[in-house]
Design goal:
The structure is a single chain. The chain is an alpha+beta fold and 429 residues long. Among the domains are: 57 residues; 61 residues, no CATH class; 161 residues, no CATH class. The protein is 41% helix and 22% strand. It has 13 helices and 14 strands.
């Protein structure tokens, strides 16, 4: 559930108990994860808000007189539905928000600026014109058709709804393409899993199969392969017998300690990052994008899968506050233009509970007070069944736990997650 509080100089976003503060100054957008204490200070007054904003931007509190002209700009800003227009020295620029990859900017004329602010439809048309150089079609479904043609696998989501958009011949053609893509991806994934389980194969496979992996994972697999070959050679030598025995004892001792302090798979993942002596830290999983060195000391850690899984993005969040310790992971699936279906798991380290929820977000999903009602309506609108949600949710959980088990050697799995309490919202029961 996401809550947004708007104030004169800034806004506060609250998601799953986590706080962030964001504001706009001219063409610049600022967004910072913050503690509850800082969020509460920013609520007290405009001056307190500016002090917090100054602190977040400059990493220090303001001195006497520094707030006088802080956060002021000569750039005029016009906010529309999903876009912002900037005016500076008689020139205009439109900023269009994107769910992935950040915003994009395009120069526009004064006439286009005036048209964009007339109505949401005019704003949409101007945004399309700025991006493509052409006006959108009169048929509101044409954009959906173009989008599905570019991403055929979307035809398999809510097929009854998608069938109404196309002729019988084109629909059948798109379904065939989607299934072929699925089979190709499954075959590639099977090959990739075989190589991951036997990293030595990466040294001998064809260039085509090497291209299935990112450069980072190839480097990791090659390192693992060389290490395995090295270990195999050492085992042949009698002189290393004592050394191997000592290592085995140490690993066994560390593993025993590790199992005692972690009652389930999610505590393993969480503690692998924050423990003093981490074992197989989660951010070093081959599936995870590297994180900047400066971000590793933060109390809120964001981790992202390098590649989509089942046509969905997977993201982790690790929260390490004194009163709140959580690990959250969720999948985000694009089901329509500007509409994402999110399935999340949140494990509370203090309560030992695992919450499983469903929600929607995106530029075409309005913010409402009753999130449950909105979710129910959108599930009906896009004909998303409970069986699909349960299957998607189970696939996410199974993927994450399998990847973790494969990387860390964990004894836990989807069928044996350890000691915890699972709580599901009404859409997943």
């Amino acid at each position: 559930m996401i809550e947004t509080e708007k104030y004169k100089n800034h806004s506060i976003m609250i998601r799953n108990g986590n706080y962030s503060i964001f504001w706009i100054r001219g063409k610049d957008f600022f967004n910072f994860d913050v503690t509850q204490t800082l969020a509460e200070k920013s609520r007290k007054s405009d001056k307190d808000a500016l002090e917090v904003m100054f602190y977040l931007e400059n990493k220090r509190w303001p001195k006497e007189g520094e707030l006088e002209n802080y956060n002021k700009t000569d750039v005029k800003t016009y906010v529309g539905d999903g876009f912002t227009i900037y005016e500076e020295n008689g020139e205009y620029e439109i900023r269009i928000e994107k769910d992935h990859g950040g915003p994009v900017f395009y120069p526009i004329t004064k006439e286009l600026k005036e048209k964009a602010l007339k109505s949401p439809r005019d704003g949409y048309e101007v945004a399309i014109y700025a991006e493509t150089g052409g006006w959108p079609p009169k048929d509101p479904d044409e954009n959906s058709r173009k989008f599905i043609r570019k991403h055929p696998k979307l035809i398999l989501i809510n097929p009854e709804l998608k069938q109404k958009l196309f002729s019988k011949e084109e629909y059948e053609h798109l379904v065939k393409l989607a299934k072929e893509l699925q089979e190709k991806e499954k075959a590639e994934e099977r090959e990739k899993e075989e190589i991951r389980e036997n990293p030595e194969f990466i040294l001998w496979v064809s260039e085509k199969k090497r291209n299935m992996f990112s450069e980072e994972e190839i480097n990791r697999l090659e390192a693992l392969a060389k290490e395995k070959i090295k270990v195999r050679k050492k085992k042949i030598r009698k002189r290393c017998g004592i050394f191997i025995a000592i290592i085995a004892i140490l690993i066994g001792s560390l593993y025993s300690y590790y199992k005692i302090t972690n009652r389930n798979a999610f505590e393993e993942m969480y503690n692998s990052y924050f423990n003093i002596l981490p074992i197989s830290s989660i951010e070093r999983m081959g599936q995870i994008k590297p994180i900047p060195l400066n971000d590793r000391q933060l109390d809120i850690i964001k981790l992202y899968y390098k590649e989509k899984v089942d046509n969905s993005n997977i993201e982790f969040t690790l929260v390490n506050f004194d009163d709140r310790k959580k690990i959250n992971f969720y999948s985000s699936t694009l089901i329509d233009e500007g509409v994402y279906l999110d399935i999340s798991y949140v494990y509370d380290m203090n309560q030992h509970t695992l919450e499983n929820d469903v929600s929607f977000r995106g530029e075409n999903v309005p913010r409402v007070k009753d999130d449950q009602k909105q979710t129910r309506e959108l599930l009906e609108k896009y004909n998303v069944s409970k069986e699909y949600l349960q299957e998607k949710s189970d696939k996410l959980l199974d993927t994450v736990l399998k990847d973790w088990k494969r990387y860390s050697g964990s004894s836990y799995s989807k069928d044996n997650m350890g000691r915890l309490t699972i709580e599901k919202d009404e859409f997943l029961k």
